């Protein structure tokens, strides 16, 4: 069968031939129709993600949409190694398949599953969002951040604060439901950028902040935590949920005094911090919300044969590889 094959760590996949999977007890083969290019797919393929098993050659792709042997159209997640989702056929635990609503097309389902899962799990499974609360999405201009803004509103947030580097894109996020946009400008050319960001957040947090969904980490996360320490009410918990590290900064320094004087509750959200069944339920809930919440995600469908050309494509629009 044709597949996107990763032959060694930190190498992009090549389009080629790979042996077809064979169903066994508890596992079904899936005839794949679509699979999105996500940060998780790329980091697992490189061998750098904590959930990677480091075995090569292997097929890339962490989730997708396809048909079971009896013709059911399903979303599937975490295929059994070495069979990833970017192939004509994959091998998947039957417990990791979700029936797809008839009204949801393959490309949209494949594109929105991963960002929807991350946002829903962060908001519901980890932060336990309640109607009327205020949510800040750090990194709201990314694909996952945009979905998080929409889902936060759908789930009853009174106020959603969106942050990001690109002011033009932040205005686009306003049209998706963000009530407030807070831009930041960091880096060597803007040495005061982190401090200015912190000060802007303090002004916003004066009205109260309940949940932070963080897709960036790095300097922006530190600025948010510092702003919480300086502005949040005494002993009123602020749930800070770290989801992704798009900034590329693995570590941040947190002054101990700042933590002692802050009501922030730090937690992560993702595989292992959230049980697999709960993550799959988050995907199902996202699918069910697409219509009622009018969830929007920009996509670009391309053939799997073009995987080498599109592997390093920008995250927006979300690339979805189609098969067959």
**What's the overall geometry?**
globular
Radius of gyration: 20 Å
Note the beta-strand portion.
15-25%
Strand count, sense and barrel status of the largest sheet are:
7 strands, mixed
Q: What's the order of the H and E elements?
A: EEEHEEEEEHEHEHEHEHEHEHEHE
Number of strands: 16
Helix vs. strand class: alpha/beta
Which regions contain 5 or more consecutive residues with pLDDT less than 50?
none
CATH architecture of the largest domain: 3-Layer(aba) Sandwich
What would you call the quaternary organization?
single chain
Tally the helices.
9
Give the C-level CATH assignment of the largest domain: Alpha Beta
Which fold does the CATH topology of the largest domain refer to? Answer: Rossmann fold
CATH superfamily of the largest domain: NAD(P)-binding Rossmann-like Domain
First and last CA, distance: 11 Å
Count the domains: 2
Helix content: 25-40%
Description:
The structure is a single chain. The chain is of the alpha/beta class and 324 residues long. The protein has two domains: 2-103 and 291-322, Medium-chain alcohol dehydrogenases, catalytic domain (Quinone Oxidoreductase, Chain A, domain 1, Alpha-Beta Complex), CATH 3.90.180.10; 114-268, 3-Layer(aba) Sandwich (Rossmann fold), CATH 3.40.50. It contains nine helices and 16 strands. The strands form three sheets. Strands 3, 5, 6, 7, 8, 15 and 16 form a seven-stranded mixed beta sheet that branches. Helix 6 links the parallel strand 12 (211-214) and strand 13 (238-242). It is globular.
């Amino acid at each position: 069968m044709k597949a996107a094959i990763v032959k060694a760590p930190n190498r992009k996949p090549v389009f080629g031939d790979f042996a077809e999977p064979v169903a066994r007890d508890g596992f079904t083969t899936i005839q794949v129709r679509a699979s999105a290019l996500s940060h998780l797919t790329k980091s697992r393929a490189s061998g750098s993600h904590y959930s990677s098993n480091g075995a090569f050659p292997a097929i890339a792709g962490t989730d997708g949409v396809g048909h079971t042997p009896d013709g059911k159209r399903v979303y599937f997640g975490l295929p059994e190694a070495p069979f990833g989702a970017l192939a004509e056929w994959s091998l998947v635990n039957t417990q990791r398949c979700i029936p797809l609503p008839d009204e949801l097309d393959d490309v949209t389902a494949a594109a929105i599953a991963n960002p929807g899962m991350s946002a829903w799990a962060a908001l519901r499974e980890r932060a336990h969002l309640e109607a009327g609360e205020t949510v800040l999405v750090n990194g709201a201009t990314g694909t996952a951040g945009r979905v998080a803004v929409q889902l936060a509103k759908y789930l009853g947030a009174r106020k959603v604060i969106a942050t990001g580097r690109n002011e033009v894109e932040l205005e686009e996020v306003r049209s998706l439901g963000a009530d407030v946009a807070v831009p930041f400008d960091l880096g060597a050319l803007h040495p005061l950028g982190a401090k200015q960001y912190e000060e802007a957040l303090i002004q916003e947090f004066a009205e109260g902040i309940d949940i932070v969904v963080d897709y960036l980490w790095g300097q922006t996360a530190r600025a948010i935590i510092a702003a919480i320490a300086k502005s949040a009410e005494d002993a009123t918990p602020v749930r800070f949920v770290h989801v992704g590290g798009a900034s590329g900064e693995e570590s941040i320094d947190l002054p101990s005094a700042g933590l002692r004087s802050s009501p922030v509750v730090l937690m992560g959200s993702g595989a292992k911090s959230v049980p697999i069944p709960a993550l799959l339920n988050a995907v199902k809930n996202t699918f069910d919300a697409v219509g009622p919440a009018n969830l929007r995600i920009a996509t670009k469908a391309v053939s799997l044969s073009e995987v080498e050309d599109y592997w390093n494509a920008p995250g927006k629009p979300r690339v979805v590889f189609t098969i067959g």
